[in-house]
Design brief:
Shape: globular
Order of helices and strands: HEHEHHHHEEHEEHEHHHEH
Largest sheet: 8 strands, mixed
Number of helices: 12
Low-confidence stretches: 322-326
Helix content: 25-40%
Oligomer: single chain
Mean pLDDT: 92
Radius of gyration: 19 Å
Length: 326
């Protein structure tokens, strides 16, 4: 009979940092640990639950940088804010109804209303939700890196250099989630036009590694059984909605499923990357889901996945050291 599953080195490093009280900007272990948060529209609620669990476990200060794509950028911002417990708001149907308004196209507005979401609800809150403390995200010791896709080049772009204040942070959040067609026009920031990060880097670990991360914890919103398949609508969208955009953007848009398959293979094999995914029997959440029971179940599926992964640290022997990246 085999023994308990050996905890991943990334989890061991996070646990050791928590045990010793290691703080961002004052490390002594020589590592740079990044958190990479996948998006996926309302499927992002799963990663929101995962991020909430990291906060509950006291592991947030173990990260040196947080990278987020699309809805994952929003979850990353909440985690780094002064009120990470507000990640629970993801499960509210009112939250979903604010960003997804099925009557909007009749009024000439995009189906996914990022302005109402980030510039109104996130900025001012309402009777049920507290606003996001944008300044606390920028002032913290953990680097925040929302990603988006440059419309001119099709390349994944780190928006951190374009963020200097709360207003620019809100714009960056909109840019990271600017889905072609569903969210309307690309978002302008820093002299560039940006579309949703998922067009070029749905799982934002590549940028984290390119910027020097030695270890990456990836919060996935797709279950392991959710195999990436070619989109039947993508060629039509590339010929219509994106017809006036540069060819590199259209090509990257059409190659999304191929990159996701490559991501799955690399994330399963790279020894310095640990992935957390919802259980195979967890609910399947669509990009435009608004059902309250489904959203709550998805949030809890994410929380459970992180708590179970962290729980494997108990009753296992300590390794000699943490492997360096190859």
């Amino acid at each position: 009979m085999s023994g308990p599953e050996e905890p991943h080195p990334v989890w061991r490093l996070l646990a050791e940092r928590a045990r010793t009280g290691s703080r961002p900007g004052a490390r002594s272990d020589g590592h740079r640990v990044a958190l990479a948060v996948e998006g996926g529209g309302m499927r992002g609620i799963i990663a929101g639950g995962m991020a909430l669990a990291l906060h509950e476990l006291g592991l947030t200060d173990g990260f040196d940088a947080v990278y987020g794509s699309s809805a994952g950028a929003a979850s990353g911002a909440w985690l780094l804010s002064s009120s990470p417990q507000s990640l629970r708001f993801w499960a509210s149907p009112k939250y979903a109804r604010t960003v997804i308004r099925r009557s909007n196209p009749l009024r000439g507005r995009p189906l996914v209303d990022l302005h109402a979401f980030y510039e109104v609800l996130y900025r001012y809150g309402d009777g049920d939700f507290a606003p996001m403390d944008f300044d606390s995200v920028l002032a913290g010791g953990i680097e925040y890196h929302p990603l988006a896709t440059d419309a001119a080049t099709g390349r994944s772009t780190d928006l951190r250099p374009f963020i200097g204040d709360a207003a620019q942070l809100r714009t960056a959040l909109r840019a990271s989630a600017a889905l072609p067609l569903l969210a309307g026009e690309p978002v302008r920031l820093g002299g560039h036009r940006f579309y949703d990060a998922g067009v070029s880097e749905a799982v934002p670990y590549r940028t984290a590694l390119a910027q020097g991360a030695t270890h990456v914890l990836v919060l996935r919103t797709r279950r392991a059984i959710d195999v990436a398949r070619p989109s039947r609508s993508a060629p039509l969208l590339a010929r219509t909605v994106l017809r006036r955009e540069p060819e590199p953007l259209r090509r990257v848009f059409l190659e999304r499923e191929t990159r996701l398959a490559e991501d799955d293979a690399r994330l399963a094999a790279d020894p310095v990357i640990a992935s957390v995914r919802p259980a195979p029997d967890s609910p399947r959440v669509g990009r435009l889901a608004r059902d309250g029971d489904l959203l709550l179940a998805a949030l809890e599926a994410g929380r459970t996945a992180v708590h179970e992964a962290h729980g494997r640290l108990r009753d296992t022997p300590e390794p000699a050291d943490t492997p360096e990246p190859g």
